Amino acid sequence: MRFAASLWGLALLLAQLGLVLANQVHQQVNDLFGHNGSGSATTHTNNWAVLVCSSRYWFNYRHMANTLAMYRTLKRLGMPDSNIILMLADDVACSARNPFPATVYANSGRQMDLYGDAVEVDYRGYEVTVESFLRLLTGRHAPHTPPSKRLLSDASSNVFIYMTGHGGNEFLKFQDNEEVSAFDIADAIEQMSEKRRFNKLLFVIDTCQANTMYSKFYSPNVISTGSSAIGESSYSHHNDVDLGTAVIDSYTHYILQYLETLGKTSRATLQDFFNTYDPARIHSHPGISTELSPTQPDGILVTDFFGGVVSVEVTPKADELDPLRTAGSAGWVSGRRRGARGIGEGGQSSPSPSPMKGPPMRRTEGVRGWANPTERQTEGGWVGNAALSAVLLGIGGYLLIDPRTDRPGIKRE
Amino acid sequence: MSSSAVPPESGRIAVAEVATTASPATPADPKSPRTTGGIQTPLDPTRIVNPSRRRRVLILLSFPLFFLLGVPFWWWSTSIERLSLPVERIAALESAPVTTVRSTILLTSAPDAYPPPPPGVPSYGPRQVCEALGDSVIKSTEAYYKQGGRLGTRWWDMVYEGGGRDAPALHVHLLRSEYASTDFPLKPYVQTPHLGLAGIPGPGGAAGGVKAGTLVIPIHPKQVGDRYLREHLKLAITDSILGLYPSEPPEIPLRAIKYSPNVTLSFVLLNEDAAEGEYVQGWDIEAAIREHFTPHLEPLRPIFNFTIESQMLYHAPLSFEPTWTDVASQGEDVKLQIESALGEAEKGKEGAEEVAKALIEEDKREKAWMVDEEMMKVFVNSERWTLDSGISQNPVLRFLLFIPSPSHRPLLLSAPSSSPPSFLLPQFGSVVILNPPSSAPTYHLTPPALKSSFHLFTSHLYSLLALPGTPPKVYPCPPPDPRMEPSGLRDGLNRWQLESVARQRMRENEDEARKTLVGIGRLVKKIKEMQVGEEVRGRVVGAVDRLEKMAKTRDPLEAFVLSRDAVALANEAFFHPSMMGLLYFPNEHKFAVYTPLFAPIAVPILVGMLKELVAWVRRRKLRAKRRAGQPAQPAPTDPTAEEPAGMEPGGLTHSAADKLAGIGAYVSESSEEGSARGVDVVGLADLVIVGPATDRRGTLRARPSRAAQPAS
User: Fold this and answer.
1) Sequence-distant (≥ 6) Cβ neighbours of residue B167 within 8 angstroms
2) Which catalytic residues are annotated (chain A) (predicted)?
3) Is A208 annotated as catalytic?
4) What pLDDT is recorded for position A341?
């Protein structure tokens, strides 16, 4: 084939179509060296997202809405909650000024409640600090930090960072209290890069003079984009009359509008995403920085960052046990009959399984956790559940009574 | 202030007023005549209200001195502790070659596994036979590595003697066995922990049986006399060792988890919706794990420490709706399976008929609920399913057995060919969909029902932990009793595989530890605000020590342990909370912090020092003039030109001295209760001199009475 193609190329050369020959040769070389020319070979297996809303208070409603809308979009595109670290002041949904309690909307029509059920805020309220954000990125936590508050990414992860709040030239305010500078984030990302905590990183920020925030980045494989150029403000998009406050920022509104058009299987690239930027509509000039990434945005899918599980491997037929070696349906014992049959029938009904060959499990140190309490609680009867409920009730009661706890929406004298 | 010794009202206010306008920081001289006695000279008031020049300078200098003394503390409290790291040693490690370990393989033979020598030739013992065989195996291995550009190195040595405690972990044994296949090639296998063929009394039982983990080359008595036996043995041993002990341990694929000494395995049985009925209410999970997982986990004990948890969920909804479509043709595989099942059933095998029936049912099935690949990616509904207890920081591998609800049965994967309804999620875990075979209100899964699912879980475990499989030239271990059927399950992990895992993970850890150490070094150099405390340095040094020691170690497991500790220490150092240190502080920030703090204090101090300097210069000039014999000039009435306490009376004009004497008398009178403390004589003198000095007391009375309003 290749020979024929070169002959064909030769014929074309004779026909003085040098350009076509070049194409031919190029194609052949591509054929020869196989699939690595396409550049779409994924080297990552999972996606992580860090969503940061660095504002608090009711009048910053839109920042909470920005972040939650992004959170919903990521989840819709299949990213598991365990891979999304959500940092949110989280004080608007239950604010006394919220006429629609326990809801957050990102549009004036209030079509979709972003708060709703199953929102997992990992850092909330006063936990959202510059320090916790930088510790999250670099992984330098106190030893007792639970896994849900950690960014457990590795060299095969694509990490998406979204930030929103009030900022300025090379800084972003955190809760009107402190600020993170562009240098801090650049250094944190460099530390992530040194520890190979990401494969590719996409940094998106919506704040005033946002493009200055990524101007200090110097680590490879980072693509960043921001809402407004230096000296420019980022504006909110529109207000809701009933809420009496702006509900979403302009830039976030338009990128979400674009992301809404994508599905889990979308083949749209980051370039397509950037092409939707329209400064006239956004009222500021979004910036894009790709010089740190060896792969240009037209070679990266949007779902490489905004997606869930990257790949699954279907088990090959060869791994299956020969059906003849299984017992067919013999092992399926009807639960009800089982209760009636008693112990006589092969020990299947006894709560503890029949002793098998091999050493008893409890003795083996390598395989622990047999009779662990979790198992008892999940599988065990109502006693465990009652105990658990009692503990939860106790904790709940403590939280209700304890005046030290800071819970949004509940004013204390 | 309410003392009876207070002078007339107006005078008190006057002095107080003067005091407020004067510097409050200059206390009255305790040695002044006010305390010792009355006023003798006109200069006394000066001494009373104004500290001595020396004292004033000292007071003035005490402030800068205080700051100077505070500088070390300020320096200590604001500087970042940056201990030096062993940079050279890290650099040496970075360029050092990867550590390699060398194993020894023991080659032994049963005395009857090789042909007896022909008559007249001296008989050789097993050791001599093995040595000759070992030499040829080494030669053919090296020839293999050199041939065809396959770069490889033989990382093992052959020994022929050893036993007891120091016995090499890897053992090849030639065994004469009645039950071995009579055909060539020879079919080597690795002995599993149960008693193998050698345990059966007979000619094979050389030393009371073969130890588990031994690579056994079974030789049938009929084969012993074969003239090419030696060649066959050489080929079989070389092939199996090449497969079991490759030159380079395989790379860890992306789907496998990174090394962590502790790993949690979470087994979850998920009923899609128990409320719909026909749900699984129990499973013999302990027995299933013991049967399927323990043989693989137990040998890994030197490398991994497993924690196992299990749970059942009764409501595990899917986040998507599978599609009800035609089942793709199952292909020839199923037909063959049906045939073989029918054949077995004819032979009278228990259960085979049932299997055949189920397979035929399955084959006839036209429509089913299908899960396509995109659905598989979102199959795990992590929002609704709690898949592990989350009590530890260990990486968790989840093994999910999904029972679809009756309205979604049968649930199949729309994957090519008749693959089992199971898939693997890289670094996450595995999913097996189990469709109940028949209808019943509730089920209980016994080990036989879990067998096929757990067999799949086992192979997923191998993928997720990057455990090496059995090489193609090594055959499964025969069951302990030749009359038993082989189980079809994977043989437990053997010593050879463990060695391979250790080498593989050792390389991974070494690489990770080196990269982390180099990264720490680079970051500390690059980011000046980064703190390096004693704890961090200790860990870095510990990691470097271990890596250096590891390069000298030859024993695979020992080297592995060193690499494991090195990577743990390096990671602890990198992720040490103190390494976060300070945030970035640009110079503008520092300026913004220190200016409001120091600027207001600095102004009076600097101005005061300037004044002292000016006064000193003036005094010098005055003295120089006097020495030149010129009469003293009248003291200027400029407030900056002070009348120091030590000045000669000649320095003042008569009128000024006179007035001052009057003031002094007044002050000494009124300051009985201390309200005149801190009165600056400069101010007083000024007040007196510039005022209409007709009446001594009248002046004072007249002026402050105007100013009395704001003071009160």
Assistant:
1) B106
2) 166, 208
3) yes
4) 39
CA atoms within 13 A of residue B677's CA, in its CB half-sphere: 13
pLDDT tens digits along B484-499: 777 777 788 888 888 8
Q: Which residues 163-192 of chain A have a CB within 8 Å of chain B?
A: 180-181, 183-184, 187, 190-191
Q: State whether A190 and B523 contact (CB < 8 Å).
A: yes
Residues of chain B in contact with residue A183, where contact means CB-CB under 8 angstroms, are: 584, 586
How far apart are the C-alpha atoms of B544 and B573, rounded to whole Å?
12
Listed residue (B190, B259, B211, B261) closest to B469, CA to CA? B190
A53 is catalytic: no
Contact B206, B179 (CB under 8 A): no
A345 touches chain B (CB under 8 A): no
Task: Report CB contact under 8 Å: A78, B378.
Answer: yes
Q: Could you identify the residue written with the tokens 């469709």?
A: B435
Place of tokens 């380079």: B248
Contact, A201 vs A222, CB < 8 A? Answer: yes
**B527–A contact, CB cutoff 8 A:** yes
Burial B10-44 (b: 16+ CB within 10 A, else e): ebbbbbbbbbeebbeebebbeebbbeeeebeebbb
A104, A58 Cβ separation under 8 angstroms: no
Does A320 contact B456 at a Cβ distance shorter than 8 Å? Answer: yes
What is the arithmetic mean of pLDDT over B276-286?
89
The confidence score (pLDDT) of residue B410 equals 84
Check CB contact of A156 with chain B, cutoff 8 Å. Answer: yes
Reported as a single tens digit per residue, the pLDDT across B354-392 is 777 777 777 667 778 888 887 888 888 877 788 888 778
CA A1 from centroid of its chain's CA atoms: 46
In CATH, what number does A47-306 get? 3.40.50.1460
Q: Nearest chain B residue to A148 by CA: give it.
A: B390
**3-state SS assignment for residue B672:** helix
Positions in chain A whose pLDDT score sits under 70: 1-42, 309-310, 322-331, 335-413
Q: Cis (ω within 30 of 0) for the bond into B188?
A: no
Q: For chain A, how big is the Rg over CA atoms in Å? A: 28
B429: nearest CA in chain A?
A312
What is the full DSSP assignment across B613-644? Answer: HHHHHHHHHHHHHHHTTPPPPPPP--TTS---
A86: buried, middle or exposed (CB in 10 Å: 19+, 13-18, 0-12)?
buried
CB-based contact, B654 to chain A, within 8 Å: no
Mutate to test the interface with A, among B194, B279, B283, B309 (most CBs of A within 10 A): B309
The CA distance from A185 to A50, in Å, is 13
Catalytic residue among A44, A63, A166, A253: A166
The DSSP element (H or E) to which A14 belongs, if any, is: helix A2-14
Nearest to A176 by CA among A162, A166, A164, A163: A166
> What does DSSP assign to residue B612?
H
Written as six digits, the tokens of B488 are 């079809």
Residues of chain B with pLDDT > 90, as a percent, come to 18
pLDDT at A8: 54
For B181-201, the pLDDT digits (tens) are: 777 777 888 887 764 444 444
Q: What pLDDT score was predicted for residue A398?
A: 54
Judged by a CB distance cut-off of 8 A, whether residue B307 touches chain A is yes
A38 vs B60, higher pLDDT: B60
Do residues B378 and A80 make contact, with C-beta atoms less than 8 angstroms apart? no
Write the CB contacts of B525 (distance below 8 Å, at least 6 apart in sequence): none
SS3 B22: coil
Please determine, for the modelled complex, whether the ipTM score is greater than 0.90: no
Q: Per the residue annotation, which of A63, A208, A237, A253 is the catalytic one?
A: A208
Task: Give the Cα separation of A264 and B221 in Å (integer).
Answer: 63
